[in-house]
């Protein structure tokens, strides 16, 4: 079920396009989830992908697409997890956070966004003031670790 919820927020956040839903549905079937709409979605081709079918799949499992606030919180947790895991650089995190508008933040989420900064020019600071960059990077990693210790959003 966790994989389905992850797919739901990733789809809502635009990280999974419509044409990827059939393969994602097939992965859910392989993982052991099963429902009529999920089987139907998994059987579609990428070009035949039916975005209206995905909410039906979610409904068959007693859930729905998350609202925008929950989706953005999930994205924030995901970005923090990727930074802590070393899958994203601080510059990539800053770009992702600045690209999105976050609402409904928890205190840990606000701390993380505050650590990223709102007008921090990462590449310029890294090149011209490396010590300032290291201080910022340390604060960002610390905030990401705190956020990773909080529960992932649910809906």
Q: Largest sheet, if any?
A: none
Beta-strand residue percentage: under 5%
Average per-residue pLDDT, rounded, comes to 87
What is the multimeric organization of the chains shown?
single chain
Structural class: mainly alpha
User: How many β-strand runs?
Assistant: 0
What does this protein structure show overall?
By secondary structure, this protein is an all-alpha fold. The chain has nine helices and no strands. The chain is elongated. The two termini are 13 Å apart. The model has no long low-confidence stretch (mean pLDDT 87).
Features:
single chain; 155 residues; mainly alpha; 64% helix
What's this entry about, in short?
The chain is mainly alpha-helical and 155 residues long.
Question: What's the SSE blueprint?
Answer:
Blueprint: H1 2-12, H2 21-30, H3 36-42, H4 53-60, H5 68-84, H6 90-99, H7 107-116, H8 122-128, H9 130-148
Helix pairs in contact: 2-3, 3-4, 5-6, 5-9, 7-9, 8-9
């Amino acid at each position: 079920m966790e994989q389905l919820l992850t797919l739901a927020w990733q789809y809502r956040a635009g990280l999974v396009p419509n044409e990827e839903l059939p393969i994602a549905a097939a992965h859910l079937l392989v993982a052991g989830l099963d429902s009529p709409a999920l089987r139907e979605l998994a059987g579609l081709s990428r070009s035949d992908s039916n975005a209206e079918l995905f909410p039906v799949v979610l409904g068959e499992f007693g859930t729905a697409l998350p609202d925008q606030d929950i989706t953005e919180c999930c994205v924030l947790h995901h970005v923090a997890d990727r930074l802590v895991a070393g899958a994203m650089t601080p510059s990539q995190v800053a770009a992702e956070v600045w690209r999105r508008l976050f609402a409904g933040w928890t205190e840990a989420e606000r701390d993380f966004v505050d650590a990223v900064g709102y007008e921090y020019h990462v590449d310029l600071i890294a090149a011209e003031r490396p010590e300032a960059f290291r201080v910022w990077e340390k604060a960002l990693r610390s905030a990401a670790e705190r956020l990773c210790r909080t529960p992932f959003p649910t809906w």
